[in-house]
């Protein structure tokens, strides 16, 4: 409609839509994964090991052979559980000893020297203890108290840290104790069916882990495929954006382009009505979308950021519509345009100018259609008629059904 390459713009929007759909798909997958993103190779490796473990245990289960599970449980109990329990017990002993020392240090540090009591003692002994000596002792006590309080702060922090570590160690020891008890129960159990049930539970847990890993692997593969598809699409979109920018520059600089013709007609209409030139411009923004801007120029013909209000913005819209229709006068393009309240808020002189433009464009073969109320008409003497009879299509009033749009009773 404005003379720009519509195919480029349409293709650009389609590429953006495809990219947006892929980005939404990625967000959905990432949300489903709850922020857990492991390397595909790592997932494949863990999955393989768990599958092999499940197959081995399933074979033992099918054969009712529990020798290997007994051996594995014994090895795990000795090498993992017992060693870890011993290590944690040693750590707990060390932490308990340190805690005892910190508590003892917190109870120490009491300053037992009292200058007033010393003064009384020296007085009874007949020794002078006044003035600077007493003052120096008081300052020394204050200094020692400050150092002691700072040290106690560090000790309290250390005590809190020790208590936190002790809680962690005790919790882990409780967990390992339960695990050791369960393992010993399994090893000492002679009932085959109980061992069968325990092994079955392990296989069920393995199957659940395998299913979760397979789902995660599928998500990761899907993410990889989507990101691989996004890269060429992004490049295609960027290339289209470059072509759009080149086309916009070409149409702007070509004095004979359709857009240049529209902007000339646009400025002529505005200047004829308000005696100010107007500028119609189109530019490609950072996203590659076209932005249309209409401005009224100042007296020197320069663009201004001044806001001319609703009335002039409406005039710019009317001028744009008429300019587009005139530029397409020789094309297969609509010939009519409808505007409501075009004369509102304009002064009488500008109303007359706008009506003259509308009549001019009607004479070119276009069909401008406007609606207005009589109070918007420019002032004229009673002998003059603003519109000829063939220019008035319909006059509405409240003096009966003939004044209504559909000539029928109200309800």
Question: What can you tell me about this protein's structure?
Answer:
- It contains nine helices and four strands; from the N terminus they run H-H-H-H-H-H-H-E-E-H-E-H-E.
- It is mainly alpha-helical.
- The chain is elongated and about 110 Å long.
- The mean pLDDT is 78.
- N-end to C-end Cα span: 43 Å
Total number of beta strands: 4
Strands ordered across the widest β-sheet:
1-2
What is the strand content?
A: 5-15%
Order of helices and strands: HHHHHHHEEHEHE
Tell me the number of helical segments per DSSP (H or I, 4 or more residues long).
9
Overall average pLDDT = 78
User: Which runs of at least 5 residues are low in confidence (pLDDT < 50)?
Assistant: none
Secondary structure: elements and pairs:
Elements: H1 6-32, H2 40-63, H3 67-107, H4 115-124, H5 132-188, H6 192-253, H7 258-274, E1 278-284, E2 290-296, H8 309-327, E3 336-340, H9 348-363, E4 367-371
Parallel strand pairs: 3-4
Antiparallel strand pairs: 1-2
